Amino acid sequence: MGDHLRHWPQYLLPQRWLTRLTYRVTRVRAPWFKNALIRSFARGFGVNLDEALDPDPRAYPDFNAFFTRALKPEVRPLAPGDRTVCCPVDGAVSQIGIAQADRLLQAKGRTFSLAALLGGDMERARPFQGGAFTTLYLSPRDYHRIHMPLTGQLREMVHVPGALFSVSPLTARMVPELFARNERVAALFDTEAGPMALVLVGAINVASIETVWAGAITPPLGTTIRHWRYPSSGAGAVRLDQGAEMGRFNMGSTVILLFGAGAVRWETAIQPGAAVRMGQALGAGSAPGT
To answer: Which end of the chain has the lower number of beta carbons within 10 A, N or C?
Structure first.
């Protein structure tokens, strides 16, 4: 009953209005305002500024620049191996396992649709049915750039408009089909381990999701599904190396990583609730057909 009482006000919040307000506030450049906001946020959430490429809070032009700050390269080394699946983000493992046909585990007693997550297209979802997946939650204190788990060739990107519920563990327990209801951007790649998808899930106050090849995808938040296809070579082709930045959350949220059936074996030590860092080994991939 306590979880229900804490959760139900989310249905009443003006999610999009609050998110637009967050977008504006986090881009205010008045030094007195942005410096105070950065200092209070860093202190309140225990942000480790020693890891930042620029550890001086005053050096950032606005709060969003601080929130999406770069890290010193040496603090996030990549696990060795071309087929090692490196963690794409700093955060915590919400769920990790194998899809049951078209269903992914959201929380104890709750699952959600893989096809709905990827925009309702069964053909787009088919390569990932029965495959390995993990859901990674980024807290406010975490590093908010997203990196490639494996070297990949971008094949398609999909923006799916939706709600903007929180993606906290409480909300994951309470809201049916949460990750298939919230705003999200899915990037689909071809890799040495076969098809791979990185799904960037928005949430309340996540005022912008962007990728390195297309810039900001949201805003606008939109009302219709948009998708883009990319060639394998020539003009418009996008190939990213393992560990390369592929996108970022302008304010934090959740990443869902998908692979095809039999393509990846997760490390047994990586269990729900585990803290993870970008670059560490999540599992091992195999070449298609092996």
So the answer is: N
